[in-house]
Structures are given as C-alpha cells and as structure tokens.
Design brief:
single chain, 18 helices
Length: 435
C-alpha cells in the first residue's frame, strides 16, 4: 500500500510496519547495522537529540527495567524526562514516552507524513525511523533529559549516534549471536561500542574476558568505568512476603523497590551507580527522588511484563525473559512456587531455544503448553513441541497464545500457577488477549 499522506493512526502504523523492515517482526532480514542512514535521517530532522541531555542503556538482560527505573528517578527529581525503549508489548506508542505519557497518535501521523513529504534518498529501517520519531518528539516536548535504550547490540545500533551524559551496560549473556558474535567477549565488544570519549560508563556485572573487554574500551576512550558489582552500594536486601525488595544502601538509605526478583536486585545496583555518576555530572537528584522512582517505576513509566502478576486466582504471572541469562534467574523463582506450574511458552526462531529448555526442565512439577506468537519470527507450536521432546520435555502444542492460556486455565487446580513467557511477543499477545 502506497501513501502520499496518511490520515489516521492506523494508517501510520500500517506504513511503519508494512513498508519498512521490522526486526521485531521479521528478524535477521530487517537487521541493518551501521550508522550512516541513522545520521542522515537525524540530520534531515534537525538533529533533535542534540537539544537535550541523554543517558544510553545497553546490555543483554535488564536494560529495559534499568532504563525505566532511571527515567522514573529523573521524573521524581523534577526533570521532564523522555524514555525510548523497544520492543512494545501492546501499543507501538509504548516505545516513546515523556514523563510516562505515550506519544499521542496524532504526533505519529504527523511525523510519518512529514517523512513521506521529504522524499529522502535514504531508506531507513523501521528502527531508524522510529528512533528519529522519538528523538524529535522529545525535542518538541521540551524534555530536559531522555533515557535511550539500545535496540540490538551497541556499536552499530542506530541509537549510537547520541553522545550521552552516562553510558550504562547492564550485563552480557548469549543473545542475537548471529549478529553480535558467538562468544561472550564478541558480544561484549559490540555492547562496549556505546562507550565514548568524555562519557563515564557503568557496567552492572562482568567477569573474566568480558570484564577485560569493557576495561580496554574505557581505557581506549579515556573515561572512568564503574562496575556496580564491585561497589557494594547495596549492603543488604530484605524481601517481604509479596516478593517486594527493600534495599539497604550505603549512600541512599533504605529504598523500597517495586520490581521483584534477583535480576532486579542486580539492576538496582547498576541504577544506583548511574545515579551517582549523574550527580557528579551536575544532575540534582535527591535521595527521596531515588526512593520515589524505585517505588513507582511501573506507575510512572508504564513498565510491564517483568514478573508481572495479572491474576490471583489462579496466580498468573508473565515475564519477558527470553534467553538463557534470563531463565537462569526465572527458573529458580518458579521452582519456589507451590502447586503445579502451568507454563505457557513460545519462542522466536533466532533464540537459543534448546539452552532455555534445558533450564526450564529443572523446574519441578510443571506442565507445558506451547504457543506461537503472532509475529513472523515466532516458532510454530508443533515444531517447538518437537524440539522440547528432544530435550525431554513433554508438552501440548496449542496454536495461539490465547489458546495455550485457555488450555492451561482449564487444567489448573486450586493452588496452581500459570506462567506466560519465553518471548516478548508471547507476553504481548497474552496481555492483548486478556485486555
């Protein structure tokens, strides 16, 4: 479908998703490394990202939670704050927010029309165009600062055109190996590509050769590097009966977190080190602003899908963890729950599915319901069932995510648990289906 102009939000999003390559939907065919197109597109719109301060967040796991928490803290500190993340779960507009509010539909339509009218010689990817839309939206919204999450990797990710106040890298584990490298060191090298001259960097955790990659990159750039795992800012974590953490810190006092789980404890340490660097750079962030941001991150930023409880009867949880690093922490947490665990799971076809299944197999008392999410990259439920069988996991191929969830729901008994996950897109379909 060709448009000289678009008149509705639906037409605008149809253009974005239909006319342009979308990694979220299509996978490797949409992957377009390099910054030349991003820079050209950015220049055509007046280089909007240069009009406000930015914070850059990369990493394999936890970058979304980290970005949202930093945004909530900055909002609490009184800064008008932009937040750019990906992918979205239900609504495209989730990708770009100002003080927690999604970009208006009319602004999406306006941007697409102005882009079409320009008839530029470049052919941007979905991600490049969406990023430029976000950066310009932030400028027009007069933000003071924007937290920018990388899409894939770092060095060649289109967001790497920014020069931030602080660079944050959460951690490294295996993900997108076909693009970023087949060793942790190669993946780390790509993530380390966001490290720039005169920009201090925080790394959440890294060991051995991965740590050396980051240390060498920081040394080459001539910038200080902080490893949150070394700083011991969080002296003690107390978890209440509902799983909510209370962080006893060296600098900020006692902080009550809204996000639960071991990953979030690690993310919290990374966020606090980033806050200390921002303070050192002139940002006015009080201890109370830090506490308010941690306690209200979901409400303030719209964060969803992180060990998200959607029902008490039966207890139903969804989580966007989708690689071995994420499941190394999800599996023990699920194992602690009583009753039969009914796992509604699906994957996209470019993940280490067998590695994740090996971890899932360690969870006791489980029943599996295999689903196919509604994106091109999603693995067929029957094919997933065959791969799982090879790993020693028996399960029921159910077709769509909704069909799998209803099958799990009909099989639950009092005290059982339903878990939905394995992919962002499985969670997205689930939330859209029950909404």
């Amino acid at each position: 479908m060709k448009h000289n102009t678009v008149t509705t939000y639906r037409q605008a999003t149809e253009y974005l998703f239909g006319q342009l390559a979308v990694f979220q939907r299509d996978g490797g065919t949409a992957y377009k490394p390099g910054l030349d197109t991003a820079r050209s597109l950015d220049k055509a719109f007046g280089s909007p990202h240069t009009k406000y301060a930015t914070i850059h967040v990369a990493g394999t796991n936890g970058k979304g939670s980290t970005a949202h928490t930093l945004a909530a803290i900055l909002q609490s500190a009184g800064y008008r704050t932009g937040l750019y993340t990906s992918p979205h779960l239900v609504d495209f507009r989730e990708r770009m927010r100002v003080d927690g509010e999604m970009i208006p539909e009319a602004d999406v339509v306006d941007f697409v029309n102005r882009y079409l009218e320009m008839e530029l010689p470049v052919h941007p990817s979905f991600f490049e165009l969406t990023m430029t839309m976000a950066f310009e939206f932030f400028e027009r919204s007069r933000v003071d600062v924007a937290v920018i999450e990388t899409g894939l990797g770092g060095r060649l990710d289109s967001t790497n055109i920014i020069t931030p106040e602080v660079s944050v890298i959460t951690n490294i584990s295996f993900d997108h190996t076909q693009f970023l490298g087949d060793t942790l060191e190669k993946i780390a090298s790509e993530k380390a590509g966001i490290i720039k001259h005169d920009v201090p960097v925080v790394v959440g955790e890294a060991q051995g050769g991965v740590r050396s990659v980051f240390e060498d990159a920081a040394k080459s750039a001539g910038v200080p590097i902080v490893f949150a795992q070394d700083e011991k800012e969080i002296e003690r974590v107390v978890v209440n009966k509902t799983g909510t953490p209370e962080y006893h810190t060296a600098t900020f006092g006692i902080i009550k977190g809204e996000l639960s789980g071991e990953w979030q404890h690690r993310n919290a340490a990374t966020v606090l080190e980033a806050v200390k660097l921002l303070r050192g750079g002139g940002f006015r962030i009080t201890d109370s602003a830090v506490s308010e941001g941690f306690a209200g991150v979901c409400r303030m930023t719209g964060l969803a899908g992180r060990w998200m409880k959607v029902s008490d009867n039966p207890l139903t949880i969804c989580d966007t963890g989708h690689n071995t690093g994420g499941w190394e922490l999800l599996a023990p947490r699920l194992s602690e729950l009583s009753g039969t665990k009914h796992l509604v799971v699906g994957f996209v076809n470019d993940k280490d599915i067998r590695g994740v299944l090996r971890i899932m197999k360690t969870i006791p008392d489980t029943k599996f319901y295999f689903a196919k999410a509604s994106v091109n990259r999603a693995l067929d439920a029957g094919e997933l069932a065959e791969i799982a069988a090879e790993a020693g996991i028996a399960g029921e191929p159910c077709g769509s995510v909704r069909e799998a969830w209803l099958a799990a729901l009909s099989a639950t008994k009092p005290g059982d648990v339903i878990f939905v996950g394995g992919s962002n897109f499985v969670v997205a379909d689930f939330l859209a289906g029950i909404g």
